[in-house]
Amino acid sequence: HRKKESMKKIMSGDSKAYIFHMSWTTNKDDKLKFFQQMGEWYLNKQCIAKERHEITDGNSGILDSNVDGVLTKHCCLVEPQITCHYRDKPSKVP
To answer: What angle do CA 90, 43, 69 make, to 5 degrees?
Structure first.
């Protein structure tokens, strides 16, 4: 990113900024990797790139229903999933 000091503050926890768009990445796969590395990815692996019916179809242990929060309960994480993909980029993992 062009503003390296801003990125360092985000990674160290000294910034309250939220990241919604990463225009410097080439595609969705790269965006996912950067979000994971930066500690900003809060989605269970089994829910990535899946449609609702693929997550709730019984094979995953959840019944397909209209109950509010069924996807939130199954897919959303309280703590971020942190995975390092790039050794030369900032990461939440030292």
So the answer is: 150
